[in-house]
Amino acid sequence: FGERLARVDRLDEGEDLGTFVRELLALEESVDGWLAATAHGTVPGLQGTADPLSARQYRVLDGVAFSLERADVVNAVEDGLRRGAGGPWRVAALELLGGKALAEDLSLMVRLLANEEGVAPSEGELRDAFVEVVRGLVSQGASMEVELSRLAAAKPSVKRALLRGVGSAGVPDHLEWLASHLSKDEPCDVALQEVARLAPRATLDQSRALAPAVRPFLQSSDSARRTHAVRALAAFGDERAVPQIIERLDRAEGAERRACLGALEKLAGRSLPPTTEAWRSWLAREVAWKEARSEDARMDLRGEDDARVVAALREIASRRLERERW
Q: How far is 37 from 294, CA to CA, in rounded Å?
């Protein structure tokens, strides 16, 4: 593999590289050779050479990766893990799997990510490669529920990487799975952040079901948690959170304060002075109208007097909270 890959740079500019791609694919060690070259960025197996791969050699390797069979890649990765292959090789293996993996390969990808104790790195190339492969699987519509359930006992460090990969794909179908980790101490920060990321894409049913799980984080001692919770609840349209968000307003700073103001403006459908007092007054007026007029307006809306129906519609349109009741 190395000898053939080295010859690529001896071609004249413009010559067809496809011949080399086909030659490399015909080799029994094509997958192992690709992994070795990509992991180290050099031509594998040649004594006395450590020159980095050229752009042409990388183009040939791209062609090889595209045409390798998934089964051959999976077998080679399994063999490499049995040999105890290290970090750069594992990064290359994840990159190669990324273009071919199915949901059923998720456990294999976790084995590439984690060490013998099942602990995953919190940052770095290996974790980034894993997150990207998971993101790609979810983005392509892979059904992940069964495989994710099989990883329920994974270490928190693995869960955090999974949560980031699933959430960053931006597919709301997995919101419930993300929210199921909100009660678990170690990965709950990542889970909350990813729920907040996907909340704007939630269905009405998802919003109603998940808001109660997010609402307690408004009372967290951590500003970042409160900020993510406010953003998620605003996206869910959770009116029950309004009183708590108002009470946070004067105490919040920076990103949290901006999130509170944005949430209140979204939920109230209006802008007010950025003070707790102003928003308390608005909320008091909403509550007073609900207690004094909401039932009468509802009756007028169902009546046969067109003028009263129109008047009720205008009155209701000026209110913001509890609109779904109408």
A: 71
Per-residue pLDDT of 231-275, as tens digits, reads 999 999 999 999 999 999 888 999 999 999 999 999 988 899 999
CA–CA distance, 309 with 299 (Å, rounded to integer): 9
Distance CA 139, CA 129 (A): 15
Tally Cβ neighbours within 10 Å of residue 288: 10
Running DSSP on this structure, what letter comes out for residue 68?
S
In angstroms, the CA 206 to CA 204 distance is 5
Q: Counting beta carbons within 10 angstroms of the beta carbon of residue 220, is it exposed (0 to 12), middle (13 to 18) or buried (19 or more)?
A: middle
Which residues are paired to 275 by β-bridges? none
Contact in structure between 43 and 53 (CB atoms under 8 Å):
yes
The Cα–Cα gap between 205 and 80 comes to 45
- Residue 158: its H or E element: helix 156-168
Task: Give the model confidence (pLDDT) of 277-319 as tens digits.
Answer: 999 999 998 888 777 777 777 777 788 888 877 877 777 766 6
Measured distance CA(81)–CA(108) in Å, rounded? 9
Q: Using CA atoms, how far apart are residues 222 and 220, in angstroms rounded to an integer?
A: 5
Q: Which stretch of DSSP H or E encloses residue 32?
A: helix 30-40
Q: Which pTM was predicted? A: 0.85
For each successive 10 residues of the chain (326 residues), what is the average pLDDT? 88 78 93 94 73 91 95 96 93 93 93 95 96 94 87 92 95 94 84 96 96 95 95 95 93 94 92 92 86 74 80 71 58
Query: Is 108:77 a contact under the CB 8 Å cutoff?
Result: yes
How many Cα neighbours within 13 Å face the side chain of 80? 28
Of 30, 44, 36, 39, give the one whose Cα is nearest residue 2. 44
